[in-house]
Structures are given as structure tokens and as C-alpha cells.
Amino acid sequence: MATEIKVPELPESVSEATVGEWQKNKGDGVQRDENLVDLETDKVVLEVPAVADGVLSEIKVQPGDTVSAGDVLGLLDEGATAAAGDDDAASKTTPEAADTEQTDTAAADAAPAASPAAQKLMAENDIAAADVEGSGKDKRITKADVVAVIDQRQAEPRPAATASGNGGGDDEQDIEQVDRRALAGAPQERLEQRVPMTRIRARIAERLLDVSQNTAMLTTFNEVDMQQVIDTRARYKEQFEKSHDVRLGFMSFFVKAAVEALKRFPIVNASIDAGDIVYHGYYDIGVAVSSPRGLLVPVLRDADQMSYATVESTIRDLGQRAQNGKITMDELTGGTFTITNGGVFGSWLSTPIINPPQAAILGMHATKERPVVIDGEIVIRPMMMLALSYDHRLVDGRDAVLFLRTIKELLEDPARLLLQI
């Protein structure tokens, strides 16, 4: 019996998806709940599992096609089994042909899966899949992986010249430079390359434009002396890791400080909805993380009820699953406030953009030793610049400045977080 393979119900606010890679070929046998094809949405990759055992009898869409909920992706012949092959044809195969077939089959089996964009780039640059180490889910080869190989080849010494080779860089660098690197194959030529904007990049562009057009965004700045946080972390980090099996980082201090400040200034935790102000009696903190697919903002639900260890372990888990493409849409929606850390990339100061419909976002930056005046004396202290961007339609300048000052005071004296003073 032929059963239609349909696009499942998409997450709220998502109307379309892009067909990714088919995990099975036409005629392949499949088992119930086995992934058949990946669908890429604005934020996450959805897997479409088989509803029963059978054979994938027809594929109706190809990688790169746009589909909506309920669209037919292919047909599954329930209860059928994959054909074993033509015995007569096999008996007439010459030894040489058999060797060739076996070699081709072995090579195909050994080659890791690659995304459509990666396959195209490998073909254009004569790169074998076996020469690329995949960083995606199940070692799937991404476009960034292929670009890294191209960069590495170009960095290798050429005849009559010497060059210091360097690797492809980390994931964040791959994300930021992937389009520019794609043109590096012929640096002496004036080339242009037109490629479709990825769904996630298109969504980011749409949201950023929406913020600029529909909010009155303003940013206030302050600086925080990180010495007390650094000393506290250094004093307890080994004991903390032994007790909780997770490293003590700086982010948990900022999350807890933000929650306490939001309790004192509820308007910063609010949002605007159709002319109404919605005050949230909970604290769902979004933490921006980078991934091979772009910037994602998973949410820590009820962060006020989390311990430092729970904050650190949750952030680690969300970050790892974001890297592997296994994070869910529910984990990316519904935040009331966001924290982003440009300091991990070396940023000294920036203006973060609000994550709508939230009212504000806190930007962390790199900690740098700088001369400051304390008690009339010039001393060297580890200082971090903080930035709070807020929607001035909802948050007054006074509340924004006092909110940021509260975070500064809590971080400069972490005992305040425990005493809630």
C-alpha cells in the first residue's frame, strides 16, 4: 500500500521549509521511524521519519525545493521489501566489471553525506568527499567544511614561492567568511558569485529590518570591574566542577544578575503586543550562541529557579545541540530577555540589536585590563564594557540606566546575588 510522505506540521510562525538532503534513495528499504529527509526551517532542521516499514517508492521533491505543511514529499510502499537485484544480469557480469562495481560501491559507502551546497562546491573545485571532514550531524559535510579545505589548499606552499599554511579556522570564522571564501579559488580574477540566501539568513535579515523600522531602539553603556567575579570563579571552579560535573563560567553570573535586575525593573522584562504592555511574571532568558547555520538564541526557561550549575549545564547542552543541528524550535522561542556575548570574538564595544518582541538585550564584551581610578589611586583592573539596547517606546532612559547599573553592582559584589540585596 502506497502511503504519502508529507511535510509535518511546522512550528508556530513558520510557514515554509526548504528540502535538505534525502537520507534514502528511491527503491531503498526503510524501517519505521527511520529518518527519510531533512527539512530546513528558519531556525532548526526537522527530520521526517518513516511511518512504517517499507520501500521508498517515489521522491517528489528535490533538495532546495520550498515546501509547506502537508505537502507530499514522496511515497512509501508499506510492507514492501527492497529488490535484491537481477540474478541473471549479475551472472553475466565480467570479473573486471564486478571489480569495478565493488570498488564504486565501496567508495560510495565510504563517502560521507554532504549537503547540496557542499556537493556543488566540491564538484566545482574537484574535491572528493573522502578528503573533507564533516562537522555536521552524523559527520555530514557542510559548505563551510568544503570552504575550509579550499582555504587549506590555497595556503599550501606553491612552486617558486613559500607560504605559511593555516587551517580552516573555527566554526565562527567559517560562518562569517563562508561566502567570501567561496570566491577565493581565483584571486586574480574579478569574480562575482550569486547564491540564494539561506532560509536562516533571510529570516535574520527580515527580523533586523523589522527592529529598525518598528522599534525606537536606544543603547546605554556602562563598565563593570570583573575582578570579584574572576576571583570567585578561580577560588571555586575546581570544587564546582567536581560537585556538578560542569565548568563554572561567567555566563551564569550574568544570567543571575540579569534575573535579579529584571525583578527590580519589570518593565525591562515586558513586551508590547498590539498596543498593550505585557508584563511577564517569569524570566526566560535567551542566550545567543553561534552555530554552523548562523546565530541562534536558545532560551533558559524559568532562569530565576535555576542554580548556577543548572544554568551552566543547560547553556552547555543547548550550545552543543545548536552546533549539531538538534535544537528544537520550542527551545528558540518565547524568551523575555536576551544576553549576547560578543566578547568571545574579541569585541570591545558594540550595540546589540533587540530580539523582538522583547524590550531589551544585554551585550557583554571582552574583559580587558585597563587603568581605572579607585579611592583616588590609579590601578589596573579587568574591565568589561556592557551595553543595554532597549525599546524606548516601552522603557524609559531612567529605568534602562538604573537596570544596567544594577547589573554592574551585582557583578562587582557577587555576594549581593546570594543575599538578593
Structure, described:
Helix 8 (251-264) packs across helix 9. The chain has eleven helices and 19 strands. It is α+β, with helices and mostly antiparallel strands. Strands 9, 12, 15, 16, 17, 18 and 19 form a seven-stranded mixed β-sheet that branches. It has helices at residues 87-91, 95-110, 116-124, 143-155, 171-181, 199-214, 227-244, 251-264, 308-323, 397-412, 415-419, and strands at residues 2-6, 16-22, 29-30, 35-40, 45-49, 54-59, 66-68, 72-78, 217-225, 271-273, 276-278, 285-287, 289-291, 294-296, 299-300, 337-341, 360-364, 367-374, 377-391. It folds into three domains: 2-91, RNA polymerase II/Efflux pump adaptor protein, barrel-sandwich hybrid domain (OB fold (Dihydrolipoamide Acetyltransferase, E2P)); 122-196, no CATH class; 201-419, Chloramphenicol Acetyltransferase (2-Layer Sandwich), CATH 3.30.559.10.
Give a brief description.
With 421 residues, the chain is of the alpha+beta class.
Observed structural traits:
421 residues, seven-stranded mixed beta sheet, 3 domains, OB fold (Dihydrolipoamide Acetyltransferase, E2P)
Based on secondary structure, the structural category is alpha+beta
* Gyration radius from CA atoms, angstroms: 26 Å
CATH class of the largest domain: Alpha Beta
* CATH topology type of the largest domain: Chloramphenicol Acetyltransferase
Question: Domains counted in the coordinates: how many?
Answer: 3
Order of helices and strands: EEEEEEEEHHHHHHEHHEEEEEEHEEEEHH
Shape: elongated
Q: Outline the low-pLDDT stretches.
A: 86-98, 103-109, 157-173
The CATH superfamily title of the largest domain: Chloramphenicol acetyltransferase-like domain
